[in-house]
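Minutes, project check-in
Item: structure for the 120-residue chain
Input as provided by the requester:
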Amino acid sequence: MSLKQNHVVEDPIGVCITHPKRINWKSQPNLGRVSDTQLAHELGVTAQAVRYARLRLGIPQFRGKARLGRKGINWDLEPLGDVSDSVLAKKHQVCESTVSAARRLRKIQSKKRKNECTQT
C-alpha cells in the first residue's frame, strides 16, 4: 500500500494550499458558475483550493443573482457586443450605461457604431 503525497502550492496571495487529491480543473463545468465554497463541498476540497484553481485559469468569481440586472435581465443570453448598447438599452428599457456595464463586466468589446444620423 502506498501513501499519496500531498502537493503544496503557493496561492497568488501567498497562502500555502495542500492538495490531497489531483483534480482536472479544466474539466470542472461548475468552476465560476457556483460559489467556490459550494464547489469545494461537492469535490471534497477546500474553498481556497477552488479559488486558486479558478484564479489560475482566469475564471471570474461567481456572483450569483447579481449577474442578473435589477430588472431580471440575464445579460449572458443577450447579444452583447454584436448589437449596439443603445439598441439593447431600448429593448430592455434601461440606460445605455447599464448595458455598457454588463458588457464590460464580461470583457466584451462594444460594437462599432455606424453614423445613425442621416442628413437629407
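Outcome recorded: Strands lie at 7-10, 16-19.
No further action items on this chain.
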